[in-house]
Design brief:
The chain contains eleven helices and 14 strands. A seven-stranded parallel beta sheet has the order 3-2-1-4-5-6-11, sandwiched between helices. The chain has a single domain, classed as Rossmann fold. It has about 350 residues and is of the alpha/beta class. It starts with a strand and ends in a 7-residue tail after the last helix. It binds nicotinamide-adenine-dinucleotide and uridine-5'-diphosphate-4-deoxy-4-fluoro-alpha-D-galactose (UFG). Uridine-5'-diphosphate-4-deoxy-4-fluoro-alpha-D-galactose binds near residues 124 and 230. Nicotinamide-adenine-dinucleotide (NAD) binds near residues 13 and 33.
Length: about 350
């Protein structure tokens, strides 16, 4: 298939481009480079040994998107392009609603107009809110605590309504859990700009000595050791989940959790990182972070049943690949993604 990958120069998009190319698909990458570097396109080509077509463009711009669809035969779209910083979305809600919703609507409109029947959307486990774990696709969604999360829930509803009116259109809503790790080459990965918000990059930077100590946000949650539990998934597994979703996509709306089904606490992750990489990660316990929930992990059985996909890489591999990328990036001072 000829696959349009929006946000394909970013963290998850770049790994998915590699997986698509390795599976024999062609990719057209579009990205406005607002949160990544152009070099990631060369790195994708280098890993997969295939030339990648790339356009620097903003997918909220309907006219440019129309020209793109007119000039290329597209069999399917994987729509990653979006803003994703939870805190920033609280401060700049309009930026998030416009970017994340308009892009989805513009692309869906182009698909309908040009007869493209496969649309894969990057959603998030955040749409489950504080439901009971493990999260199942059939659960009622609960309000999220921030505009970013709302853009995901709203995009899901918009796409579902579009399919109701256009029953031949196929949409896959992929709810990601916590993507971590990097490609084993160390060429692509996630390189947050400034102080990371997310746990794994923070841990890697503490290990590297860039940050002094990890702050663990609360140890009084009702979990195995009191610290927050999440379902960490290797980004390469996540990328392969997209290929499976695209290959199996039929008309209608299909929702899949992409997670491992395993919960790992903050303390467990720190221990795994220390053991996998033989390095110390100093930490202190501080207050809970507002908006955090105690536990978030997937029931990942639907994706296995219907797509034949499961996550294969364990927490040790995730820690090892995150560390390898951090070391390589720090040594070369080159990042593929800037968050
Ligand atoms: P990322 O920031 O690395 O990638 C997103 C890419 O989209 C960036 O390269 C950015 O430059 C581009 N972009 C943003 N707005 C654009 C626009 N209007 N036009 C063109 N390009 C645009 O983020 P990621 O971690 O790779 O996330 C990809 C998608 O997955 C996002 O939609 C995100 O919300 C979603 N998601 C991510 C996580 C996570 O923890 N990383 C979890 C759940 C869902
Ligand atoms: N944590 C710390 N210290 C830190 C960072 C995080 O203790 O410095 C803890 C958090 O309290 C939480 C766990 O580590 O218990 C994971 O936190 P992350 O910030 O890495 O991830 P979240 O689960 O909070 O959020 C992520 C994405 C969201 C997405 C959500 C749902 O950042 O965009 O997963 O899947 F919506």
């Amino acid at each position: 298939m000829n696959v349009l990958v929006t946000g394909g120069a970013g963290y998850i998009g770049s790994h998915t481009c590699v997986a698509l190319l390795e599976a024999g698909h062609s990719v057209i990458v579009v990205d406005n480079l607002s949160n990544c570097k152009r070099e990631s396109i060369e790195k994708i080509s280098q890993i997969a040994d295939v030339k990648v077509t790339f356009y620097e463009m903003d997918v909220t711009d309907a006219q440019t998107v129309d020209v793109l669809f007119r000039n290329h035969h597209i069999d399917g779209v994987i729509h990653f392009a979006g803003l994703k910083a939870v805190g920033e979305s609280v401060e700049k809600p309009l930026l998030y609603y416009v970017n994340n919703l308009v892009s989805t609507m513009v692309l869906a409109e182009a698909c309908l107009q040009y007869g493209v029947k496969r649309f894969v959307f990057s959603s998030s486990a955040t749409v489950y809110g504080d439901n009971k774990v493990p999260f199942e696709e059939t659960m009622n969604l609960l309000p999220t605590t921030n505009p970013y999360g709302e853009t995901k829930a709203m995009s899901e509803r918009i796409l579902t309504d579009i399919v109701k009116a256009n029953p031949k259109f196929g949409v896959s809503l992929l709810r990601y859990f916590n993507p971590v790790g990097a490609h084993e080459s160390g060429l692509i990965g996630e390189a947050p700009n400034g102080i990371p918000n997310n746990l794994m990059p923070y841990v890697a930077q503490v290990a590297k000595g860039k940050l002094k100590k990890l702050k663990i946000f609360g140890n009084d949650y009702p979990t195995v050791d009191g610290t927050g539990v999440r379902d960490y998934i290797h980004v390469v597994d996540l990328a392969e989940g997209h290929v499976a979703a695209l290959d199996n996509l039929t008309a209608g709306v299909h929702i899949y959790n992409l997670g491992t089904g395993q919960g790992t606490s903050v303390l467990e992750l720190v221990k795994a990182f220390e053991e996998a990489n033989d390095i110390k990660v100093p930490y202190e316990i501080v207050d809970r972070r507002p908006g955090d929930i105690a536990s978030c992990y997937a029931d990942a059985s639907k994706a296995e049943r219907e797509l034949g996909w499961t996550a294969k890489r364990d927490i040790v591999t995730m820690c090892r690949d995150s560390w390898w990328f951090e070391k390589k990036m720090s040594d070369q001072s080159v990042s593929s993604t800037v968050v």
